[in-house]
Amino acid sequence: MKKFEEKTYHTETIYTGKIVQLNIDSVTLPDGNTSKRELIKHPGAVAVIALNDEGKLICVEQYRKPMEKSLVEIPAGKLEPGEEASTCALRELEEETGYTTDSLEWVTSFYTSPGFADEIVHIYFTDQIKVLDQRPDGDEDEFVELMELTLEEAEELERNQRIQDAKTAYALLYWKLRISE
Amino acid sequence: MKKFEEKTYHTETIYTGKIVQLNIDSVTLPDGNTSKRELIKHPGAVAVIALNDEGKLICVEQYRKPMEKSLVEIPAGKLEPGEEASTCALRELEEETGYTTDSLEWVTSFYTSPGFADEIVHIYFTDQIKVLDQRPDGDEDEFVELMELTLEEAEELERNQRIQDAKTAYALLYWKLRISE
User: Fold this and answer.
1) Beta carbons of A111 and B3 less than 8 Å apart
2) Rounded to an integer, what distance in angstroms lies between the CA atom of residue A8 and that of residue A52?
3) Is A6 a catalytic residue?
4) Residue in chain A lying closest to B34 (CA)
5) Model pLDDT, residue B19
6) CA-based, 20 to 30 A from A85: which of A66, A79, B54, B90?
């Protein structure tokens, strides 16, 4: 669907980094006027809603520089170039939590900030995980701590703003709905 | 919580635009090594889960440049400097849909992309809306079309990837849970 399409007549790349690229697109609007759009290009990401044998949610706590605080989130990570989303989901689950699974069910994929970024997050579910004999190395500049939470504990962390990101907020509702059905 | 804090020893501002600012922070990691973080500063946003008298969800379709396609989303918009989130939510509801309300209930606030951006979205709910006599002007470079959807219609749009953003995906689960309770 291209309703209200904005046609690009010029793209200026401001910055190309390890994770994001910033472009400024000059566009023609549906009414013929022109405007500029600030656009972040991102490789995309995955996240895993993983429940253990006790029905607890696997989460990781990590420092999030943009907010200057640590957040408790479901395991997640960026896609490597050419990597399949499900491969990435399994890799991130293993690296961040030391668990693995042979049952990953795709739940949904959504754009996180459609106004200015093309980042998409692919969300998977599993309730069949087992501990790896040896946990693989993750990114060398990533420090995470494993947590396993009941729904009540997770909702308490959400009230306390320690769970406070879109994919984990989505995961808690998904989990609640799954329990209620 | 500052667990695994990354201390900034240098910030370079690459770009300051109308919507985003891009900074590169040089940081010291918990293990004493250093790294760089690409950080998008964003003013924050609001979104409204609004149900009409028939229990249909108010949505707007608009072109989203980062994805080069139009998406169907719940009404939303950026915070103006100094603007209260609830004031912004009412303003965006009125501008984008022509509806107003005197009952806005805060639902949650979440960071959309905590790995690289500080954008927070404050989500509100209302099931008490009425049509404005006159719809206020919105942003002059914004073109949106109103839609009012049953849950079944919304879920069909989600399957067809016309609803495909984090806040609207969250809204559909929130709505389903509310109906089921």
Assistant:
1) no
2) 48
3) no
4) A141
5) 96
6) A66
Residues 6+ apart with CB under 8 A from A50: A57, A58, A74, A75, A93, A97, A99, A101, A125, A126, A127, A129
What is the nearest CA distance from A118 to chain B, expressed in angstroms?
5
Residue pLDDT, tens place only, A129-173: 999 988 888 777 889 999 999 999 999 999 999 999 999 999 999
What does A14-74 look like in DSSP terms, one character per residue?
Answer: EEE-SS-EEEEEEEE-TTS-EEEEEEEE---EEEEEEB-TTSPEEEEEEEETTTTEEEEE-
DSSP characters for chain B?
--TT--EEEEEEEEEE-SS-EEEEEEEE-TTS-EEEEEEEE---EEEEEEB-TTSPEEEEEEEETTTTEEEEE-SEEEPPTT--HHHHHHHHHHHHHSEE-S--EEEEEEES-TTTB--EEEEEEES--EE-SSPPP--TT--EEEEEE-HHHHHHHHHTTSS-BHHHHHHHHHHHHHHH-
- Of residues A8, A33, A110, nearest to B166 (C-beta): A110
Q: Is the pTM of this model over 0.95?
A: yes
Identified catalytic residue from A6, A61, A68, A140: A140
> For residue B1, is pLDDT > 80?
no
N residues, chain A: 181
The predicted-structure confidence for B29-69, as pLDDT tens digits, reads as follows 999 999 999 999 999 999 999 999 999 999 999 999 999 99
Question: Phi, psi at residue B83, to the nearest 5°?
Answer: -75, 135
Of the candidates A15, A78, A114, the beta carbon closest to that of B15 is on A15
CA distance B81 to chain A (A): 18
- Among the partner-chain residues A35, A45, A66, the one whose CB lies closest to the CB of B118 is A66
Two structure tokens written together for A32: 């013929």
Secondary structure tally for chain A: helices H, strands E: 3, 12
Q: How far apart are CA A80 and CA A44, in angstroms?
A: 9
CB contacts of B19 in chain A (<8 Å) are 38, 115-116
In the three-class reduction of DSSP (H, G, I as helix; E, B as strand; rest coil), residue A85 is classed as: helix
